[in-house]
Amino acid sequence: MKVNWFHLMPWRFLPPNFENEHHSVWVDIPTKLYDPARGHHLYNEYLDELEFADSMGLDGICVNEHHANAYGLMPSPNLMAAAVARRAPHANLIVLGNSIAMYNPPLRVAEEFAMLDLISGGRLVAGFPIGSSPDDNFAYGFVPATLRERYYEAHDFIKQAWSSEEPFIFNGRYNKVRYGNLFIRPVQKPHPPIWIPGGGSIETWDWTLEHDYVYCALSYLGYEYGKRVGTGYWERAAALGKDLNPYRFGYLQLICVAETDNQAEKDYAEHLEYFYNKCVHIAPEFADAPGYRTEATVRAGLRGGVGNAATAFRKGLKWKDFVDRNYVVAGSPATVRDKLTWILKDLNVGQLMALQQIGSMPKHLVLKNTELFAKEVMPSLKTIWTEEWEDRWSPRPLPQNQRAVAGQAEAR
Amino acid sequence: MSELKTLALRGGDFAVKYYQAGQGDDLVFLHSAGGLPAFTPELAALSKKYRVTAPLLPGWGSSGEQHLHEDVQKLVFFGWDFCDALAIERPILVGHSFGGMMAAEMAATEPRRVKKLVLIAPAGLYVEGCPMFDVFAATPAEIAKVAFHDPESPAAKAFVTPPSDPQAQIEATVAQIRALATAGRFLFPNGDRGLSERLYRIKAPTLLLWGESDRLIPRQHADVFKRLMVNAPVKLQTISQAGHVLFPEQPEAAVNAILNFCAA
Question: Is residue A368 in some structural domain?
């Protein structure tokens, strides 16, 4: 099992009655709720936390992209990965990812990811999400019905840029470049591993499997959502004749560890409630622009009776609900270890993404949560699957002794 | 009552369903993002005077919308290819909302092929200060509230009431998403694909027909259309007690306005 540490970087200072007074945490949130003086410290606090996770021996640190969003303050995750690359010298840099359909030309992503791979000595995971509807359609104005063809074209363009040994012409529908030429080459050959964070759309499972990428189920609904997506994904893997190597599958889980189960509730309940009541207070009309989901996915969703995920959060849930529904795995190290082991084996997960800064959680609790997890829970998780399966999807960095050390770097 | 007919365009990329009824000069009707659920009484009334041809556009009952990508020119070519396939040389073009935008684009591309142009609350412009309502971030109930003069009317109620049969409900939802997704190819996010820079090319005598209480595409858009159509005689007519969906609300007034204009 690879154990990675995910940061969403939420705004921790939404007003107490935010969810009743404001329309949505995403897309049309009033900018007056943001304060740059605090924002300066908050970014640095969060970068400290990512670096702490690196020092605790996590396999990777994960950042992601959102726009006009108060629970995800990273319009450019690449900047954050670059900011930690030198002070977090061990962990893989898992950028989950760049919404490649929106970069014009997508060559920009090939370049920046190559830069991150070079700075970090080959520790980059390149995440290619199609991007969420609030981000891509409503915040950035891309036409929903053509987003997927833009996405596939951008993917082909980036792959070609990474693999082509000489200048090439790219003549797509949406991108035309006469002299495609990525002079800087990524450290990893033929390119950094590609992971696809997905929202459960059926076509993406097949596409991911056919390209031999990792599929990442990222949600805030824990096991409930993971089971639905995991079941569908592994069924498609079997149908396509792929091995059921768990390292093909990434899964995000909210995790809260304290000395005891009771202490976990005392420490973290308030911050989880902030997260589920404020951070995911997403106006349903922004969740899913018409044309964003394919018709097949719409039908599957409707048949399964699955409503709009955004609305599920609007019910004033409490600590007990989050724990009982496995939205969060919380409690003493033993409790967390047992439950996580069960979930990860049941879902056949090889790439865990632990979300441990949640909602309004302040730094001292983030560090405590992370340290307890890293020391008391992670060691046993890391032994899962290592006997039976090989991880073919994690970075292959330069050997430690060949990597640049911050402060002492010199090219020869 | 007219039955649906079919024809294939561009080697089968588009399987087009359409209604055709009546005799006389050709009148081609292009529907709104709400689609065309039947050969409506209004079309029947027009067909007493004209040969009315009303396609279901790709995405609204005809297939092939993916071949349009988000390219207005492809939509225009679809429209004229459809006319060519039925040997419709120089029609009166009538379009409502999305169909109004399409009719205006067709007329701007082939100005000599349009005998008369009727634009009923057409989409296609971004007007500073009064953009079209964002139908892409709205529930059917919210759309009904801005589309109808009287959101409490039976027609408005029918618009938001889903079918009772569960399977029909799924199909209705899928159809609704598909319709808005297709409209979004040409209207997302601001309703503007550059039509304002092409309107000058239109030469056909044009009727701009608007519901007085249209809150989906505000009345101000009519003035901008009129101002930019510098090479066409344009008559602007508004209908009271009508919102964006003129026909169900004021069928007689709307049909008479079109018939009078076309006869003049």
Answer: yes
Quick check: A298 and B173 CB within 8 A?
Answer: yes
Could you tell me the two tokens for A399?
A: 């050997």
C-alpha to C-alpha distance for A140 and A160, rounded to whole angstroms: 26
Helix, strand and coil in chain A, % to nearest 5: 45, 15, 40
Q: Which domain holds residue A309?
A: 2-402
Is there a contact between A285 and B139 (Cβ–Cβ < 8 Å)? yes
Structural domain tally of chain A?
A: 1
Name the pTM for this structure: 0.95
DSSP class of B94: E
Query: pLDDT tens, A294-340?
Result: 888 888 775 443 334 545 555 678 999 999 999 999 999 999 999 99
CB contact under 8 A, B177 and A298: yes
Q: ipTM greater than 0.90, yes or no?
A: yes
Specify if A396 maps to a domain: yes
- Kindly report the number of other CB atoms within 10 A of residue A210's CB atom: 11
A79 touching B (Cβ < 8 Å): no
* B101: closest CA of chain A, how far (Å): 17
Amino acid identity at A372: L
In a domain, residue A337? The reply is yes
Q: Which domains does chain B have, with CATH numbers?
A: 5-263 (3.40.50.1820)
Judged by CB atoms closer than 8 Å, whether chains meet at B70 and A145 is answered as yes
